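Following up on my earlier thread - several people asked me to post the actual chain instead of describing it. Fair enough. Here it is, all 488 residues.
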Amino acid sequence: MSENIKKTFLSGAFWTLSENIIFAIIGIFQLAITSRVLSPLDFGIYAIALFFSGLGRIAFSMGLGPALIQKKGDINNYLDTAWSANLLVSFVATIVLWTITAPICIYYYHSTEAIWPSMVIMLSVILSAAINPAVIVLQKEIKLKKYFLLNAVPKLISFILVLVGVLLLRSFWALIIALLSEYFIRTIYSFLLLPCKFHFRINKTQFKELYSFGGWLQLKNITSWLAGNIDVAIVGNILGTEQLGFYNRAQQLSQYPRTFVDGVVNNVAFPLYAKINDNVERLNATVFRIVDIILLILTLLSIIILLYAKPIVTIILGESWLSMVIPFKVIFIAYLMQTLLFSFNPLIRSYGYTKSEFKFYLIKIGVMSILLYPFTVMWGLIGAGFAILLAVILVFPYLIYILHLKTDLKLPYIYKSFCVCLLNALITFGVGLYLPFNNGWLFLVGTLICFSFSLLLFVFITLILNIGPGTLIINTIRSFFKIKKNVV
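Reply from S.P.:
Thanks for posting it. Predicted structure:
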């Protein structure tokens, strides 16, 4: 990477990672506390409510934000159109969803208790769309310090409300009230943080220009939502609301690595790719470094979860949730593979090929539709996890085809780096099986040993083959000693 690009990436990555670290810490504490107060049935009802609100917020998003980020030049004149269109669609989506909520809850989920929570939580759809559109400018220019504040402050307040609400109400309503409060505070704070006036008006020419890019992203959002929630729908229908609660907790624990990586890739890498995709050499160097970082993180996480899922679940959720340990392992690995798969979407999007993103999710939905029902019927939550994992794996050939056909990315390096990570994970996992640290907080000792062994193994492989994430470790060490030498 050039120095300017490196500084831009590191600055954006710092604030995005800071946000994700704070969110992860808050989320883990929230999981630990709420899982000891609320029942699996409460979380099952909450999962159904999230099913509807997610459909409204994500599937009906028209992709106008990414269209503005991808667009060259000044975008300020387009903000009124983007904001107004999103707000209008959010109102329509909320009304449509309200009309179908009760029938789905009664006849599909067989849960009348979920009707009102689902209808109330859908107010988040409108609150999400009403946020200050100037936020898009921050993302486009990778000025993420204010973006960090915009997300972190409402999340902290929401966390406090969850704790108070759960202790007072001892009901899923505490989770719903806190979530709505987070969206409301974020919307208000966005206008305080970035003072500016916007008008409700839609310029047809501007909308058509943006939607020609964002339209495929909207279809992608719909298929993305289906791909991410079809398992919730099928598990809830076949196994019932209580088992859906167990599944929801496994998902929540599994989503953190995906959140970490997706945050950096979407908030930092996408606008960066959009700026440099006309320079093949610079693009490849940037993508290789980002992919190596992602592979390094995913390798370390996969090793730890496969070895120490039981003590992690026991410490965070409590012993009453131990029945979800194996499903958690399978779902976690599936989410890691999905994180790697979709980390390439921003690169494809930067070339303007949003249709390909839509096809990724369409293929995944097709495979999951075939596998989920029989797998869940035969093997319960574990079967649902394996269905997700297989669906993700089967999408990879199409990804490789698209990257080869439509981008300037040199794929052999990525193939080799992936093989290095797979070899590292297998060897480190084999070593970790013989470590006596499977109970309680002792897993932290095992984690430290496995991390150290894996990092040294990465360096060893890189010194021999000159490829893989070990390059990052070696360069970091060299930079450290160079700085130390200059200081001295």
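DSSP finds 18 helices and no strands in the chain. That should answer part of your original question.
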